[in-house]
Amino acid sequence: MIVLDKIAFSYPDKEIFENANLEVNEGEFLFVVGESGIGKTTLLKLIYFDLFPDKGIVKFGKYNSKTIDKTDIPVLRREIGIVFQDFKIFYDRNVFENLAIPLYILNFKSDEIKKKVYEVASRFKLLETLNKMPYDLSGGEQQKVCIARAMINDPKLFIADEPTGNLDPFISYELFKLIDEINIKGTTVIVATHNFEIVRKFPEKRIIQIKSNNFFDVKLKI
What we know:
It is built from seven helices and ten strands. It has helices at about 40-45, 75, 95-105, 110-125, 140-150, 170-185, 195-200, and strands at about 1-10, 15-25, 30-35, 55-60, 65, 80-85, 155-160, 190, 205-210, 215-220. The strands form two sheets. It has a six-stranded mixed sheet, with helices on both faces. Strands 2-1-4-5 form a four-stranded antiparallel sheet, with helices on one face. Helix 3 (about 95-105) crosses helix 4 (about 110-125), helix 3 (about 95-105) runs parallel beside helix 5 (about 140-150) and helix 5 (about 140-150) runs parallel beside helix 6.
């Protein structure tokens, strides 16, 4: 599903990857770990074509970083749901409107938007919050809204960048169980995190560590 083939990437002041290779199969759940600033977010941005490698190729399905037309990038991203650490929630819109934003952008009809919003709200146990404003929700509830919004269009790939970085351990575990359920239902999942305690609670998942400008499969020491 995803291939990074001999990629190199650098910022003006720092080399991040050099001759790095990675393959992710459809239906996998992948943790990406590594120290702060090592390149976890950069890797995710390369996968959803927000960044492009200096050398090598990134492939996502039929799309290729060397040949993709810029007008096709929004089409590619319709197949990807993304959740960020800082939520990216709209505080001037209620939960219903936040969930509906991707559908408005894709010009869904109002009745279809309502149907899909209620379906995803039911799936993620958010029905009672639909008329609430984000500032009336807890941090965990806000992030659950972001997860539901990322999944509203049934993407093939779900990406989360430090999705529980500012939440307490219990709420973090509950959200990761929610993400695990997304994977169990068939969506490929990639999560970047520095929280090894959470990773240890899911020992059956694949773990990729970033170090020395490359990616390495690792096994947890139980």
